[in-house]
Amino acid sequence: MSKSENQYATIYLSDDDELIRKKIMKAKTDSGPTEANSVKPDYIENVFDLMKLVSAQDTIDKFETDYNNCNIRYGDMKKQLAEDMVNYIAPIRQKAKDIYG
Hints:
Elements: H1 17-25, H2 42-54, H3 57-68, H4 74-100
């Protein structure tokens, strides 16, 4: 086991947009469920949990339905999550820059 910290395991408010996208695209996924309405493994649930924080409900519903119907495309989900995360964090990052000058 490596003693070095996984540099992609945490998204910081100070991360630039490209780094946020890169970190999200490296999130662990698998080949998808093989049975309808399968229980999500923890690492997949984590991706959905992030999406629940920053994405619109219809977007979340679409990927939940895709997962439950065994036709989810994780690449598409992570691209959407990355854009939603960037859009969510950008005004927070700007406000922090304004405060700290």
